[in-house]
């Protein structure tokens, strides 16, 4: 059974600071997804990571994938309040996605 | 067009009501999914349709009944729900099941009273 662990589950940070969210998964997979969810809203796709060593950046967010370590990271650079949301990683299994529990990010001035 | 459209956006229903949630995509995707999401939790898979056939039912109670009339449409029929079924219901689609990107609809916020 594929298991996905995210940490931390809650992250409170100040604007301008950097931080990393970690996503570990238990079985071999070569596709990993990061989603953002605002309160009461649906999931917004942020990154699709398709291969070992993949790195993608969009604005203040950068995601990477190490399939050998079964680890993905989502790095936040110089956080701003607009990044406050819940971030989920999800890993492709045989037929479906398995989600991590999510990281609730709160960025304050 | 990378859009998955869900209707209605909000639904309040009594425990004796029958209602349906609808999901539509025109991306030519052959896999469609229903997820249920409670507050502060990740989405939980309910059903998977592949080429209009039900391929996965994650032991969902029979008061939830999915239907895939054609490759673009997915319905979720609701009957005799319980208050604990109140949640955000998300539809998603992907080109195929397995290793293909899933696109999510905006969700239906369901409240059972």
Strand content of chain B: over 45%
**Which sequence of SSEs, written as H and E, runs from N to C of chain B?**
EEEEEEEEEEE
The secondary structure category of chain B is mainly beta
Strand tally of chain B, please? 11
Overall pLDDT of chain A, averaged? Answer: 93
Beta-strand content bin of chain A: over 45%
Sheet bearing the most strands of chain A, described? Answer: 6 strands, mixed
Name the overall outline of chain B.
globular
Number of helices of chain B: 0
* Uncertain stretches of 5 or more adjacent residues of chain A: none
Structural class of chain A: mainly beta
Q: What's the helix-strand series of chain A? A: EEEEEEEEEEE
Overall geometric form of chain A? globular
- What's the Cα radius of gyration of chain B? 13 Å
Number of helices of chain A: 0
Q: CA-to-CA gap between the ends of chain A? A: 41 Å
| DSSP helix fraction of chain A | under 10%
Mean model confidence by pLDDT of chain B: 94
Roughly how many Å is the radius of gyration of chain A? 13 Å
What are the defining features of this structure?
heterodimer; A: 109 residues; 6-stranded mixed sheet; 5-stranded antiparallel sheet; 11 strands; B: 113 residues; 4-stranded antiparallel sheet; 57% strand
What would you say this structure looks like, in words?
The complex is a heterodimer of chains A (109) and B (113). With 109 residues, chain A is mostly beta strands. Helix content of chain A is 0%, strand content 57%. Chain A has no helices and 11 strands. In chain A, the strands form 2 sheets. In chain A, strands 2, 4, 5, 9, 10 and 11 form a 6-stranded mixed sheet that branches. Chain B is an all-beta fold. Chain B is 0% helix and 57% strand. In chain B, the strands form 2 sheets. In chain B, strands 2, 4, 5, 6, 9, 10 and 11 form a 7-stranded mixed sheet that branches. A 4-stranded antiparallel sheet of chain B has the order 1-3-8-7, with no helix packed on it. Chain B is globular. Chain B starts with a strand and ends with a strand. The chains are: A mainly beta (109), B mainly beta (113).
């Amino acid at each position: 059974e594929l298991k996905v662990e995210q940490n931390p589950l809650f992250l409170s940070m100040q604007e301008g600071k950097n931080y990393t969210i970690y996503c570990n998964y238990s079985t071999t997979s070569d596709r990993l997804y990061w989603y953002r969810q605002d309160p009461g809203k649906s999931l917004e796709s942020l990154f699709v990571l398709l291969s070992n060593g993949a790195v993608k950046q969009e604005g203040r967010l950068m995601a990477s994938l190490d399939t050998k370590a079964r680890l993905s990271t989502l790095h936040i650079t110089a956080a701003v309040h607009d990044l406050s949301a819940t971030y989920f990683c999800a890993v492709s299994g045989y037929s479906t996605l398995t989600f991590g529990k999510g990281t609730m990010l709160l960025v304050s001035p | 067009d990378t859009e998955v459209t869900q209707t209605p956006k909000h639904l309040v229903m009594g425990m004796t009501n029958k209602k349906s949630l609808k999901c539509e995509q025109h991306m030519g995707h052959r896999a469609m999914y229903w997820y249920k999401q409670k507050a502060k939790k990740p989405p939980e898979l309910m059903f998977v349709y592949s080429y209009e056939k039900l391929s996965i039912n994650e032991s969902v109670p029979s008061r939830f009944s999915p239907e895939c009339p054609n490759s673009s449409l997915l319905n979720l029929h609701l009957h005799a729900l319980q208050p604990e079924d109140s949640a955000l219901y998300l539809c998603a689609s992907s080109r195929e099941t397995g290793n293909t990107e899933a696109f999510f609809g905006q969700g239906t916020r369901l409240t059972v009273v």
